[in-house]
Amino acid sequence: MNKKPTIKEVAKYAGVSPATVSYVLNGVKKVSNETKKRVLEAVDQLNYYPDFTAISLSKRKSNLIGIMLPLIEDTPASVFKNNFYYTEFVSGVELVSRNRKFDTMITGVGNPEECRQWVKKRNLDGLIFLGLFPEKLYNEMKTLNIPIVLIDTYEKYTNLFSNIQVNDELGGYLAASHLIELGHKDIAFIATDLKSSPVDAKRYQGYKRALQETGIKFNEKLTYQTYDITFEHGKKVAEEILKSEQKPTGIVTVSDVLAIGIMKALQMKHIQVPNDYSIVGFDDLSISEYTTPSLTTVRQDIFEKGKYAANLLINAIESEDVEHQTVELPVELIIRQSTKAL
Amino acid sequence: MNKKPTIKEVAKYAGVSPATVSYVLNGVKKVSNETKKRVLEAVDQLNYYPDFTAISLSKRKSNLIGIMLPLIEDTPASVFKNNFYYTEFVSGVELVSRNRKFDTMITGVGNPEECRQWVKKRNLDGLIFLGLFPEKLYNEMKTLNIPIVLIDTYEKYTNLFSNIQVNDELGGYLAASHLIELGHKDIAFIATDLKSSPVDAKRYQGYKRALQETGIKFNEKLTYQTYDITFEHGKKVAEEILKSEQKPTGIVTVSDVLAIGIMKALQMKHIQVPNDYSIVGFDDLSISEYTTPSLTTVRQDIFEKGKYAANLLINAIESEDVEHQTVELPVELIIRQSTKAL
DNA sequence: CTGAAAGCGCTTACAG
DNA sequence: CTGAAAGCGCTTACAG
């Protein structure tokens, strides 16, 4: 295969200087229409397209965005494996990024230093942080001076970076209210980690608000934390719940994955969902419609979230806009079969 | 933040030329131990790490590998969404790639031309093709002259590229044999697409071999094709099966996703798995242990597959090894609750 | 063993 | 409106 033509060859073919070719390709300065035409034709004839590596080096802009994945035991695998969430998100990012002429790199992140080096050595134009990272990472990243968008982060960092989130409070509220309407009063709340996950905390707030508004007394003993999102952890809380003396009749959960794990554990003990326990998840994963019973859940559009994040990021890159914005995407209760009137 | 030091600054600090710094960093030529030490110290002091963009431009090697994802309706989303498969695979690739100092880019692929441009403009060192692509793409890619590893491809391209696959024939055999041992004789085979998917075809062969070896007559009417891998498509075949007059008692499937869709459809009609139908999946997704009933399936280690692919690819890149190899990873029957003696 | 110089493929003041 | 030249941060024959 004949190799890719360079800008020089295009210039020669068009009878102009490389600089001129660069000008027309970048739409910069005023090039006479005639020479512009000649250049464009040369580009077309030679099937020229620029070398991004070279552009990256001279412009110090790579047209590359990076997605930081949280690592568990040094690999993003486990998070990917149990949290189908991420995968859809990444697809959303890839789609808009490709359409907007950016490429997307992914990495599991190690320490902050490694992360900064990754950005620097590849000249990344922007970053998306998917998930929760140690605080010092954010501080480190702040000094990088490139647009960064955070996903599902609250408080502390919100004003330092752009942020895409979902109406978590409302989600928790919707889930709990649904159960309450069905006549449930003893409603458990299953979180991952209320302290370190602000997302969980918000949903928890919503849950509490629903109780409060309907005059149901909040019972701390009905709150559980799993510290991880896997089916297995769902199973484990279910066992805890069964052992406790404060038995709920309804269960609000912070993730479909957890909800599915819980259902499984119950079913293994021949306890029926929704007859014995009503369960509501969060996310609406594609699997959730196909479990038995299908899962009532709070839906968020994760693919949309990915697209939104990419658009926001690329906007910031292209306009060098320093305004950080935080965007809140809607949430919707999807009623299926895992919940039932008491 | 002070900006990243360049090789010049390191050279100055060490009192040598940039060339020398480059030599020691690349372990090339013989640099006296003493100056080497000085350089290394400078590197350390200044916290220097090279700019990959520059290296990429001058070496024409990017330390970048690309993963091509199949596109559905212009986005990888849907395939990602229903095929949890890919996500684990990508994690495996990312892990070894990172450990071996490569970065990984992902893209949905459009047409062959777009694909070649992607490789060229980013100077990608190697490519992994995940899934099935149109034939002309392979031909086009062949002219790129970079190492490429294909996943789950058979025949035609096997000798043009490296290939990682799984013992599909055995997988089909294992699944069918298991059912046969349980006393099933009318065993359906649910494929995606026997014509265009060689993977399916191999599993089908294995299934037939199992029938043959035990003297069960193969019945073509028990073969179904879904033409896509989604829960929904699983549901649809289940309905077809229920409508047909040739009812199986056991069902062998080419994917857990399909199997789960089938189970769902049956359960919605109050048909019991495994009492009325025994079902075996393929892949062993993490969800498959958590469905009710949990799914008997043929396990393949997809994460391992990703790691293997990345290692093979990077080996080829680094040794400029032109030998294409095809590697076959093992497969294992995991017996759970969706199958039962007749 | 070490360095000056050219080059990778672009971009961008600057001059005309 | 157009081009020559320097520069982005490296590498690598080549010469010494």
TrEMBL record, chains A, B:
In this chain the HTH cro/C1-type domain maps to: 6-42
Is DNA-binding set as a keyword in this record? yes
Q: Which SUPFAM superfamilies match?
A: lambda repressor-like DNA-binding domains, Periplasmic binding protein-like I
Keyword DNA-binding tagged: yes
Write the record's keywords in alphabetical order, separated by commas: DNA-binding, Transcription, Transcription regulation
Q: Which PROSITE patterns match?
A: HTH_CROC1 (PS50943), HTH_LACI_1 (PS00356), HTH_LACI_2 (PS50932)
Alphabetical list of Pfam families matching this protein: LacI, Peripla_BP_3
Question: HTH lacI-type domain spans which residues?
Answer: 5-59
Q: Which domain of life is it from?
A: Bacteria
Gene3D superfamilies, per database record: 3.40.50.2300, lambda repressor-like DNA-binding domains
The name this protein carries in UniProt is LacI family transcriptional regulator
Query: Which species does this protein come from?
Result: Aquibacillus albus
